[in-house]
Specification:
alpha+beta; 3-stranded antiparallel beta sheet; 3 helices; about 40% helix; about 20% strand; globular; plasmid
Length: about 80
């Protein structure tokens, strides 16, 4: 799974960073169509201080079994779990 970031394929270190952030988020049963995964990817990048490709972010969601529909996922509008 480890590939060059410019190939537009998931990179394991990016997937791991994304998973670390995602695991701190509150998830809900229904898709949140108000905020895209692209937005959440940028929030995760700011949180971890490093780059995460969209493919790596989506791969992290898939590996964690978090439901998504296109560019949207099941994150709550609330901030992360405490």
């Amino acid at each position: 799974m480890i590939n060059d970031r410019y190939t537009s394929k998931p990179v394991q270190s990016e997937v791991d960073r994304a998973k670390s952030w995602i695991l701190q988020q509150k998830t809900v049963k229904t898709i949140n169509y108000k905020t895209s995964t692209y937005h959440y990817k940028h929030v995760a990048e700011r949180w971890c201080g490093g780059y995460i490709s969209q493919d790596s972010f989506n791969e992290a969601l898939d590996q964690l079994g978090i439901k998504r529909s296109g560019d949207y996922t099941c994150f709550s509008k609330r901030k992360s779990k405490q």
